[in-house]
Amino acid sequence: MKKLYFTFVALLLVVLAACGDGGGQSDGEGNDLTPVSFALDWTPNTNHTGIYVAKEKGYFAEQGLDVEIMLPGEAGANQLIASGEADFGVSYQERITQARAEGLPLVSIAAVIQHNTAGYMSPVDKDITEPADFEGRIYGGLGTPLEEANMETIMNQENAAIDQVDFINIGDADFFTAVQRDVDFSTVYYGWTGIEAELREEEMNMVYLRDFANELDLYTPILATSEAMIETDTETVEAFVHAATQGYEDAIEKPEESAEILIEQESDLDPDLVYSSQEWISPRYQDDAENWGVQEASRWEDYADWMFENGIIDEEVEAGDAFTNDFLPHKAE
What we know:
There is one protein chain. Helix content is 42%, strand content 15%. By secondary structure, it is of the alpha/beta class. The strands form 2 sheets. The protein has a 5-stranded mixed β-sheet, with helices on both faces. Strands 7-6-8-5-9 form a 5-stranded mixed β-sheet, with helices on one face. Helix 2 packs across helix 10 and helix 11 (255-265) packs across helix 12 (271-286). The longest helix has 20 residues, at 234-253.
C-alpha cells in the first residue's frame, strides 16, 4: 500500500512539473516560449492576416514567441503599447507621428501595406469623382482636424474651397447606411469597405488621397512597438518582425490559404468578404517595395512636415526616430 502511495505522489509531481509554474507555452521540443502581446487596431480583418498566418503556421513559435492577439478596446493600440500593456500592435503613420509629437516614444517597425488605400467613397449617383466635386456636399467623418486638413490639401489642388463642404460627425456609423441617409461621401479603406460594396453590387466612386498629394501616401497600417521595448528586448523585437514577415510573405503568395486561416481563427467574419478582400489586398502588402515591410525615410519626413505645417501637431517630429527597417530580415538598400 505504501509503495502504491509513493508511486502516486511521484506521478503527481511529474504532472505538476510538466504544467510549469506560470502556465507558459513551449515549442515542440520542450523549449519555453516568450509570451508576447499584440494589440489589433480594429475588428480582425485582412490587414491582420499575416499575423494570424504567422501564429497558425508556427512562425512565432519557431522564433521562440507565444503571441497573444488582443482586441484594442476603448484604449486603442497606441495607448496599450505606450503603457506596456501590449508589446506590439497595429498603428498608422499619422498616429505614430502624433504620439511622438506628444511625447509618446512609439516606433513603426514594418509597413503592412506599402501605399495608402484610403480615400473618399460615394455612391455613383452622387457624381463625386474628384476633389472639386466635394463642394456643396455633406461629408461624414469623425470630426477631427486631420480629416479637414486631408481634404483641404487635395481640394487646393483643384482650387476648390473646403468651406463649401458640410462636415458631420457620424462616428462609427455604417458607411452604407450613412451615404443612403445622412451624408454624400465618407472616408473608407477600399480593401475592406470598397470590396464590401462590390459584393453588395453597389456602384461607388472612389477618390484616393494619394492620387492628389504625394505627402498623403502614408504608411497605413503599420506594425509598432515602443522605444523601451527596442532598447530592453531587442532580440524579441527582431524575432517578432521576422515571424510577421514570414506570415505576410505567405499571405502575398497564398491569398486563399491565408484567408482560410483568418476565417478559421475569427469565425464571426464574412467568408466571402475575407476571400475577396484578401485577393485584392495581398498584392498591395509589398506592392512596388523591394521587400515586405520596408519604409522610406522621405515619406516619413514629408508627412511629418505636412502635419506640422497644417497644425495637426504642435511640435516638429524627428521622422528618423519614428520608424526603423533594422529588424526586417531583408534589409532595405
